[in-house]
C-alpha cells in the first residue's frame, strides 16, 4: 500500500518469515527495504503511515548482510594480476560468479607484479557499486611487492621491492596510482616503512601487515602508525613464539591504541590453517576475525572445484563447524568485520536502518539460497 | 454514557448480540427484579496470567466480530501498555494470523505516553505498541492514535486527542490495567474522577518503578506524561480492566470492595454501566472469600462470552 508520500514515492519491499542478523543476534523480525536501503518500519508506520508494496516470503531463511571478501586473487579462469586485453571483463566475470556465494562486495587482489601490470590493471579497475551484473568493487587490494623475501610464499621473487627511494615515491613508481586502491599489504620491517604506513593510513587506505618477518615491536609500531589488518594470519609470517609472538601477538597486544581494532584475515579452509590454530586466534580476539577466500584463478573451475572451489563454498559452513563459534559470529566475520576494517559500516556489513540492502539469504546449514544487492535479487539458487 | 433498560436491550438494534445472549442466559437464572444488577461490573476470575490474556483477547475478538465493522463503521478500541496486556496482545496477534479477526476497520486510542522522550526510544509507548501489536497485524497507521509526548503544545495535544475520540464516535471498548496504587492510566492517587486528557507529573513511586526500563538511572526516567482522564475512560461504552499478580491484589480490593474514592481511581468504574474486571487468582488474594466464590460461581455463564462465534 502506498505511503502518504511525505518522504518518498518509491516502492517498499517487506521480507517476512525470516530471521535477521541484527545486534549480533539472529532475531525473528521482518526486514524492510526502500530505494536500495534498509528502512525503519516504525518510522514508516508513524511518520508516513505507510506499509509494504510487496512482500517476499523467506520461508524461514536467515538474512545476513552480504559478504565482503577483502582478499580474492581471481577465479573461474581469471587472474587479476594479469594485464589481459579485457581486465574489466575479467573482474566483471568474477564479480558475477561470486554472487552465488553470497559475496556482494570485494577487493580484487593483485599479488606481487612488475610495475607495468599495476599500471595497466589499476587504470582499468574502478570502484563501483554492485548490482545484477555482479558484486561491487570497493577498491583493489595490493598484496606486495613491498614484502619480505623470506616470506614471499607464492609471490615471484624478482618483482619484490623495498622502499629504497624513501617510501611513497617507490609506491607511486610501482603502482602508478593509488586511486581505486583500498588496501596495501606490506612488511613493516622494511626500512622506511613507517612513513609509508602513516601516509597510506592518512589517505584512507587500509594498511595490512603480511608476508613479513617482523617481530612484535615492529608490528606494534606499524599499528600505531596506522596499520589495521593482518593478511592471512599465521601464513607467510613468523610463527608464534612465546618470547616474541611476532605479528600474531597483535591479537592480544596491549600496545594497540584503545580506540582501534586490529583485524586479521583467515582462510578457514582447514588447509591453510589447522582448525585448532583458527580456534586459538578466534578465542583470543573474536571481534577481529575477517574471513577471506584468497581464492585464485582455479576457483570455480571443474577440475579444481573440489579442493579449491569447494573451499569457497564451504567456508561459511566450515568456519561455523571448525571454529565452534556461533552462526552469528561466523556471519559477522564475513560481513560486519570486513566492513569495520574498511570503515564502511554506515552502508555495508550491517542490516541497520539506512544501510545498503546488500543481503544474503541462507539456510540453517549456511548454504547460500539467494543474494540481493541494493534490495534487488541478483542471484537465486 | 449509555444506560439500558431491559426493554431497550431487546428492541435496540444496535445492541451487541453477545450482550443479548448474555442477557438471555441471565434471564434464565436471574429473576426479573435482579436484572438491573447485570449492568454493573463483572469479575472474571481465571487461574493465571496466560488465561487472563487469552480470555481478554477472545472477549475483544468476539466484540469486534459481533460489531461487524466496515469502511463506514469502525470499532473503536482503547488500549493500554505495560506487562499486563502483553499476553492479551500476543493472543490477538495469534487470532489475526489464524484469520479469525481483522483490524482493518478498527481504530485504536492509547491511554498515555511519556513526555519528552524520542518517539523511537525503546521505552516509549509508541515503540511498545509498534513492537507488541501494530507491526504484527493489519491495522492502518492512520487509524491508530497515541498521544504525542513531543508536541509543541502539550495542552493542545491533549485537547485534540479528546476531539479525535469524539469525532470517531466515542470508544466502544476501553481496555486498561491497574497500578499497585489503584491508578488507571497515569491518573495517580488524588486525580479528579472527572478528569480529562491532560499533562500529569508522575508520582515518585511510578518513577522508581519505571527506573528498571531506563538502565536504573533515575535521571533518565521521564517525570511527566500525557494521559487520558478518568472521565475519558468512563465515557467509553464498555470498559475492561486486566489485573494480574499479587502486587495488584490490594488495589483490586480497594477498587471493587471499598467505596468510590479518588485515591484509588479505578474505583470510579463501580459507577460505569458495563465494566469487566479480568483477573488471575493471585490478584484476588485481598478480596473476601465470599466475593471470590460468588464470581467464580458465575464463570460458566461468563465463559459463554468468549466462546468461538459461529462462522457467518
UniProtKB/TrEMBL annotation, chain A:
Zn(2+) binds at residues 143, 211, 232. It comes from Oncorhynchus kisutch (Coho salmon). Keywords: Carbohydrate metabolism, Hydrolase, Metal-binding. Its EC number is 3.5.1.25. GO terms for molecular function: metal ion binding; N-acetylglucosamine-6-phosphate deacetylase activity. This is N-acetylglucosamine-6-phosphate deacetylase. CDD domains: NagA (cd00854). Gene3D superfamilies: Metal-dependent hydrolases (3.20.20.140). Signal peptide: none annotated. Binds 1 divalent metal cation per subunit. Residues 62-378 form the Amidohydrolase-related domain. Its cofactor is a divalent metal cation. Belongs to the metallo-dependent hydrolases superfamily. NagA family. Pfam families: Amidohydro_1. InterPro entries: Amidohydro-rel, GlcNAc_6-P_deAcase, Metal-dep_hydrolase_composite, Metal_Hydrolase. Pathway: Amino-sugar metabolism; N-acetylneuraminate degradation. It catalyses: N-acetyl-D-glucosamine 6-phosphate + H2O = D-glucosamine 6-phosphate + acetate. GO terms for biological process: N-acetylglucosamine catabolic process; N-acetylneuraminate catabolic process; negative regulation of UDP-N-acetylglucosamine biosynthetic process. The active site is at 294 (proton donor/acceptor). It is an enzyme of class 3 (hydrolase).
From TrEMBL, chain B:
It is found in: Cytoplasm. PROSITE patterns: GLC_GALNAC_ISOMERASE. It catalyses: alpha-D-glucosamine 6-phosphate + H2O = beta-D-fructose 6-phosphate + NH4(+). Residues 52-274 form the Glucosamine/galactosamine-6-phosphate isomerase domain. Keywords: Carbohydrate metabolism, Cytoplasm, Hydrolase, Phosphoprotein. It comes from the Eukaryota. The gene is GNPDA1. GO terms for biological process: carbohydrate metabolic process; glucosamine catabolic process; N-acetylglucosamine catabolic process; N-acetylneuraminate catabolic process. Its main location: cytoplasm. It comes from Oncorhynchus kisutch (Coho salmon). Homohexamer. SUPFAM superfamilies: NagB/RpiA/CoA transferase-like. This is Glucosamine-6-phosphate isomerase. InterPro entries: Glc/Gal-6P_isomerase, Glucosamine6P_isomerase, Glucosamine6P_isomerase_CS, NagB/RpiA_transferase-like. Catalyzes the reversible conversion of alpha-D-glucosamine 6-phosphate (GlcN-6P) into beta-D-fructose 6-phosphate (Fru-6P) and ammonium ion, a regulatory reaction step in de novo uridine diphosphate-N-acetyl-alpha-D-glucosamine (UDP-GlcNAc) biosynthesis via hexosamine pathway. Deamination is coupled to aldo-keto isomerization mediating the metabolic flux from UDP-GlcNAc toward Fru-6P. At high ammonium level can drive amination and isomerization of Fru-6P toward hexosamines and UDP-GlcNAc synthesis. It is an enzyme of class 3 (hydrolase). GO terms for cellular component: cytoplasm. Belongs to the glucosamine/galactosamine-6-phosphate isomerase family. Its EC number is 3.5.99.6. One of its GO terms (molecular function) is identical protein binding.
